[in-house]
Design goal:
The protein is mainly beta. Helix content is 9%, strand content 30%. It has one domain. The strands form two sheets. Strands 1, 2, 3, 4, 5, 6, 10, 11, 12 and 13 form a ten-stranded mixed β-sheet that branches. The protein has a three-stranded antiparallel β-sheet with strand order 8-7-9, with no helix packed on it.
C-alpha cells in the first residue's frame, strides 16, 4: 500500500463507504457542478507515486466507479495550494475541470470532445508569449518555448487536458497539465498525471462531459 488512504481499496463501491475525509473534496467538486470526480492522492511533499480514485454521483450520493489505479505525478510531487510555478516539476494542488481528450489517432472511443494531434501542434510554455498555456500551430506563434503534442515517445498517444491556469491564464503559474500515458510504472512527470495506457482507456470510457468531470490533486499529509 502507498499510504493509509489505500485502505479504501477493500471497501465496496457505495457512497456510504467512502472515507469521511473525502467529503471536503466532494463538496468542492460540487461547487463546480461536477457529477464525476477523479481524486489523486500522494502521501507527502515531494512524492510522485500516487493513487487515482474515480468517483461518480449516484441517486443516493457519491460512489466509487471502479477500483483504484496506480498513478504518478510531478517529479517533485504535488505543490501546496497556490504555489505551482512554470517548470518547477510539481503538479498543481486543488480541483480543476477536465477538458478535451487528445491523441494520435483520428478518432477515439470516448464521450469527451476529442482532437487528433499533428506534428505541427504545440503547447506553449513560454510565460512571456501571448499564447502562453495554449494549444497552437508551431507556425502561428513566436513563443521561444513549447511542447510538441505529437511526441516520439508516445506519452501523448492518448491523453486529457486538465484545465489548470486556463481561465484566466496567468503568466508563470504553470502550463500544459495533462493526464497522459506514463513512460514506465510510476515514472514521475513534469507536473502531469501519468497512468498505464489500459487505465487511461478506462478513464476515457468513464468520463462524460454532461457530468462536468473534474480532477483533484491532494496530499494526505495536508488533510
Amino acid at each position: 500500500m502507498l499510504f493509509a488512504i489505500s485502505l479504501t481499496l477493500a471497501l465496496p463501491a457505495q457512497a456510504s463507504n467512502l472515507p469521511e475525509s473525502w467529503k471536503q473534496f466532494i463538496a468542492e467538486a460540487e461547487k463546480h457542478g461536477a457529477e464525476q470526480l477523479l481524486l489523486v492522492f500522494t502521501s507527502a511533499a515531494g512524492v510522485s507515486k500516487a493513487e487515482l480514485f474515480c468517483l461518480e454521483r449516484a441517486a443516493d450520493g457519491w460512489e466509487s466507479a471502479m477500483p483504484a489505479m496506480g498513478a504518478s505525478v510531478g517529479r517533485k510531487g504535488i505543490a501546496e495550494s497556490g504555489t505551482k510555478r512554470e517548470g518547477d516539476g510539481r503538479t498543481p494542488y486543488g480541483i480543476f475541470p477536465i477538458g478535451m481528450a487528445f491523441g494520435y489517432q483520428e478518432t477515439h472511443t470516448t464521450k469527451m470532445p476529442y482532437r487528433q494531434m499533428h506534428k505541427e501542434d504545440i503547447w506553449v510554455d513560454d510565460p512571456s508569449a501571448a499564447d502562453y498555456n495554449r494549444l497552437v500551430r508551431k507556425d502561428s506563434t513566436s513563443a521561444k518555448s513549447f511542447e510538441y503534442m505529437r511526441r516520439k515517445d508516445d506519452l501523448y498517444k492518448l491523453g486529457l487536458v486538465v484545465e489548470y491556469n486556463t481561465n484566466p491564464v496567468v503568466p508563470g503559474m504553470g502550463s500544459a497539465i495533462f493526464i497522459h500515458i506514463w513512460g514506465r510504472p510510476f515514472a514521475s512527470t513534469a507536473g502531469c498525471l501519468g497512468l498505464p495506457e489500459p487505465d487511461l482507456e478506462k478513464v476515457l470510457g468513464f468520463l462524460d462531459p454532461a457530468k462536468n468531470p473534474v480532477i483533484g490533486f491532494f496530499r494526505s499529509d495536508l488533510h
